[in-house]
Amino acid sequence: MILDASDAARMHHADPVMVEEILAFVSHRLLEPEEPLDGLADRDRLAASLDGLICENGRDFREVLAIYENDLAPTVLSADSPRMFSFVPSAPTKASLLFDMVVSAASLQGISWFEAAGAVMAENQALRILSDLAGLPPESGGVFVSGGSAANLSALVVARDTMRRRRREAQLPDLPLRVVVSDQAHSSIANSLNITMMTALVVDTRATDGVLTGQSVRHALASDPDPSDICAVVATAGTTNAGIVDDIVSIGEVAREHGWWLHVDGAYGGAGILSARVRPRFAGIDRADSIVMDPHKWWFSPFDAAALLYRDPRLAAAVHTQDASYLDVIHDGDINPSDLAHHLTRRARGLPLWFSLAVNGINAYRDAVDRGIDLARYAARRLSERSDCMLVREPDLSIVLFRRRGWGEADYAHWSQDLLQRQRAFVTSSRWRGEVVGRLVFLHPATTEEMIDEVIDALG
Ligand SMILES: Cc1ncc(COP(=O)(O)O)c(C=O)c1O
Q1: Which tens digits make up the pLDDT trace of 340-369?
Q2: CATH architecture of 365-457
Q3: Which ligand 1 atom is the nearest neighbour of the CA of 152?
Q4: Dist. CA 155 → ligand 1 center (Å)
Q5: Nearest residue CA, atom 5 of ligand 1?
Q6: What is the mean pLDDT of residues 323-333?
Q7: Residues 6+ positions from 196 with CB-CB distance below 8 Å
Q8: Where are the alpha helices (DSSP H) in 199-350?
Q9: Which residues' Cβ are closer than 6 Å to ligand 1?
Q10: How far is the CA of 397 from the centre of ligand 1 (A)?
Q11: Would the pLDDT of 3 be above 70?
Q12: Cβ contacts of 426 within 8 Å, gap of 6 or more
C-alpha cells in the first residue's frame, strides 16, 4: 500500500483543538483535590471497549480519549493516591509531573553532552545533590535509569567487570564471581545475578532481625570454603518488604578488608538520608562504590526514574560505554549519561526531579520524607494498641509489617478487596519468614491519620 503523503503530514501537524483538549484533561487530573484510587478492572469490559479500535483509518481523538478516560484509566491503580499503601507507592510533586510533560512535549533526550548539554547538566545537578547528601566525594557521578532493577543490574555489571579487570591485571584466572547478599535483598538483585551469570552468597539475617551486618557477613564467610571469588556485597538501605536499613558501616568494613565493591540499594529507602530522624541509620553510605535511589519512589517524581550513583564514574564508563563508529562524535572526552548504564538512547528522565527540587527546595523534601516516617509510626502505634494485632518489628522507615491474630491469607485478601471496592485504600498482605502478614507503606505526604484509622478499623 502506498502511504498517502497528506495523511503522514497530518499526523505530525499539531491540531490546536487536540492540544487544548488534552491539556484540559491533564489540568483536570492535576487539579483534582485528591488523586483517585481507581484500580477496579473488568477485563471483559476492557476487551470490549478496545475491540477493533485501531484500524487502517484513524478516529476522532475525542472518541479515543473518552475510552481512555471512561474505560481504561479507572482500571489503573493510582500509585500516587494518598490511599495507596501497597508495594512501593509513588507521590510525584505537581512540579515534577508538570515538568515531565515539558520533557515529553519535546521528546527530550539525555544521551550525551554533544546532543543534550543543557539536559545533561541539569540532570547532573540533581544527581550532585543526591551524591552530596549521601556524602560521596566530589568526583562521584551517575545517571538516571528507568528503575531500581535497571540500576542494580548496571551497577553489578560494573562491580563484576572491575573485579575481572583487577584479576586479569594480577594475572589471576578468570572465574565465575559471587556477590554477598542478604536474605532480604530485593528480587531484582537475584535477577541481576542471574543475568550477569554471577551467584549469591546469601546471608541469613534471622539472628539479626532482618538486618545485614558486617558480623553476619563474617559469619557466612567463616563457613564458606573459598570466598576468593566474591566481587561485591549488596547492602540494602530500606528493604522493600519491611523497610530495614542494613548496617552499612560494618558491611563496608568487611568489603574494604576483602577488596569488594560495596553496592547500596536504596531504591526505596535511600531518601531517608534527607530525614534527621533516621539519617544515622544510613551511616556508612558515603563509603559505597555505587548507590541506587529511585526518584519515582520516595523522591517524589513520576515514573520512571532511578538515580544510579558511582563513587568513581570512570569505572562505570569503562564498562558500559558503547563503541560504534556512528557514535564516535559523542565520545568527545566527557563521560555521557549513556556511558554509565546498559542503555544508549535515554529520555532526560531526571529533569522532573531537577525542576521540582529547584522549585520546592530541599527542605520541602525533608518535610515530605519526615511525614512518611511519622505516618508509619502513627500506624505502628495504632496497631500496637489493639490486642488483636502485633507488629512484626518497629518500622525503621515508612513500612509497617504486622500480624492480625487469627488471620490467614483469605482474611487479609478480604480486607484488601473490601477497602479497594469501597475506594478507601489499597492494601495487600506480604510474608515475613513464611508467615502471611499485613503490610502498609507510607510515602504520600497527603495521607492523613484518618485514612490510616479507616484501614486499621477495617481489621475488625
Ligand atoms: C530496595 C529495592 N530495590 C530495587 C527495587 C526495584 O526497583 P524498580 O521497581 O524501580 O525496578 C525496588 C522496588 O521496589 C526496591 O524496593
Answers
A1: 999 999 999 999 999 999 999 999 999 999
A2: Alpha-Beta Complex (3.90)
A3: 4
A4: 14
A5: 148
A6: 94
A7: 153, 156, 157, 160
A8: 214-222, 248-258, 313-320
A9: 88, 147-149, 152, 186, 188, 236, 240, 265, 267-268, 294, 306
A10: 15
A11: no
A12: 37, 39, 77, 81, 83, 84, 85, 86, 416, 419, 420
d(CA 312, CA 316): 7
Distance of CA 77 to the CA centre of its chain: 17
Across all residues in the chain, what is the average pLDDT? 97
Task: Give the distance (Å) from ligand 1 centre to CA of residue 195.
Answer: 17
Domain assignments of the chain as residue spans, ordered by start: 13-79, 101-362, 365-457
Pick the CATH number of 101-362 from 3.30.300.30, 1.10.510.10, 3.40.640.10, 3.40.190.10: 3.40.640.10
Q: How far is CA 201 from CA 44, 55, 153, 181, 229, in A?
A: 46, 53, 17, 6, 10
Please name the residue that has the C-alpha cell 564516535. 328
CB 260 within 8 A of CB 231: yes
Ligand 1 test: best mutation among 84, 90, 149, most atoms within 8 Å of CB?
149
pLDDT at residue 5, rounded to an integer = 66
Q: Is 398 helix (H, G, I), strand (E, B) or coil?
A: coil
For residue 146, which atom of ligand 1 is closest to its CA?
Answer: 10
Give the pLDDT of residue 6. 77
Residue type for position 241: N
Q: What proportion of the chain, given as a percentage, has pLDDT over 90?
A: 97
DSSP 8-state class, residue 244: P
Contact of 115 with 109, CB cutoff 8 Å: yes
pTM score, whole prediction: 0.97
The x, y and z cell numbers of residue 113, run together, are 553532552
Per the model's pLDDT, the better-predicted residue between 9 and 51 turns out to be 51
Nearest-angstrom CA–CA distance, 210 and 239: 9
